[in-house]
Design brief:
With 243 residues, the chain is α/β, with parallel strands linked by helices. The chain contains 8 helices and 12 strands. It has one domain: Aldolase class I (TIM Barrel, Alpha-Beta Barrel). Helix 5 runs parallel beside helix 6. The chain is globular and about 50 Å long. The structure holds iron/sulfur cluster.
Amino acid sequence: MTGNLIEIFSSAQGEGPYIGCRQVFVRFEGCNLRCRYCDTAHDVGSHAFCKAETLRSDEPELSVANPVSVGDAAEHIQRLLEAAHHHSVSFTGGEPLLHADFISAVAERISARVFLETNGTLDNELKKVLPFVDIVSMDVKPPSAAGESLWLRHRAFLETASVKDVYVKLVATADLTEDEALETCQMVADVRADIPLVLQPVTPRGGCVPPRAEELLRMQERALRVLRDVRLIPQAHTMMGIR
Ligand code: SF4
């Protein structure tokens, strides 16, 4: 079994409640959505090689030909895990659940907690990897971001993910409507009112800008009427200049 990977590297988590935790990141090519504010060049086949960091001064980075085998991916991840203490291994993208079988096979070969960063739309694929996953970071993509309605798919996904340590992240742009924010809150509350919701003001790029500060605070106030844990957290890795 093989997977198309963009990079394997060690860094600090830059978003959400686990911000700052040291992780090994495994970034996949490919996504089933096309969000307006996407910052990842993830088209399948666009990376002939996967960049694999080593944390060694004599050979800091290797180039591994794509597609990468399960064994090779696990070996590169495990090397980083042994070079420094890490909180977990984050499978990200793109949309990592397009590679659910690959993730399960890699997870069986490494000794670390598994953290899944997903757009929260591929419920059947989530079910395949769920036994191997410890933490689910689920994005909600409202129509103003995704260009289509994904509410039913998000709801089914969150119901499945709710047996794990899960939080939901909503990237707030100036285009996000009040109805979309309320729909997100209601969906989370219907599954479990104690699931944390992160409101993440978009990092300005490609014409996308965040709402004004007072609008973000108003959004948080309204969300806290139906949810117990709602946090405003911007992307931190861009501030620190790290990947
Ligand atoms: S789900 Fe994530 S990777 Fe996919 S298009 Fe949207 S922002 Fe980009």
